[in-house]
Amino acid sequence: MIKKILISGLLSVCVASSLSAAEPKAVESKVVKPKAVELKEGMNAMSGSLYDLQRSLLTNDKKVALSATKKLRTQLDSVIGNEKTIKALLPEEVKHKSSIAINSAHLIEKAITKIEKTLNDRTMNAINKQMRTQKAYLAIQTQCFRCHNLVRDW
Ligand code: HEC
Question: What CATH number did the domain enclosing 70 receive?
Fold first, then answer.
C-alpha cells in the first residue's frame, strides 16, 4: 500500500515536472501552429459550403442552396470578413495582403446576397433565376481563386 502511494506520488511529481518543462514549447507552438490550422479549417469549411452550393444549383434545390449560402456567410465572417482576424491568420509573408482578403470577402458577401434575393424573388422567372444564381456562384469562386493566386506561388 505504502509502496503504491509512494509510486503514485513519485509519478505525479514526474508528470508535474515534465509538464512544466514542456510548457514553454507548448506556448511557443500555440503562437505559430493553431493559426495556420484555424485558417485551413476555416477554408475547408468554406470549400464544403461552396461545394454544397454548386450541387444545389446543379440540381435546382433551393432549400440546400439557401442553407449553403447561410453557412458560407457565417464562415466567411469568421475567416476573412474581419481585418483583425485575417491579419492574425495569414502567414507572415502575406500579412500585408489582408486588405485583399477584406475586398474578396466583401465581393463574396455581395454574391451570396444576390443568390439569396434571387432565390426568394417570387416574380422572377426560372431561367433568369438560374442564370443569376449561377453567375453569382462563379463570382464567389473567382474570388477564392484570385486570393489563392496571390498567396501561393506554385
Ligand atoms: C484572403 C485570401 C483568401 C481567400 C479570399 C480565400 N482563401 Fe482559401 N486560402 C487562403 C490561404 C492564405 C490559405 C492557406 C495557405 C495555402 O493553402 O496556400 C488558403 C487555403 C485554402 C484551402 C486549403 C486548406 C488546407 O487544408 O490546406 C482551401 C480548400 C481553401 N483555401 C478554400 C477557399 C474557398 C472555397 C474560398 C472562397 C470561398 C477561399 N479559399 C478564399 C487564402 C484565401
Answer: 1.20.120
Question: Is residue 57 in some structural domain?
Answer: yes
Is-contact 150 97, C-beta < 8 A?
Answer: yes
Global pTM value: 0.79
Tens of pLDDT along 28-68? 444 444 677 888 999 999 999 999 999 999 999 999 999 99
Give residue 41 CA to ligand 1 midpoint distance, Å.
Answer: 9
- Most informative mutation of 35, 37, 43, 137 for ligand 1 (most atoms within 8 A of CB): 43
The residue nearest atom 27 of ligand 1, judged by CA position, is 40
What domain count does the chain have? 1
Let me know if residue 76 belongs to a domain. Answer: yes
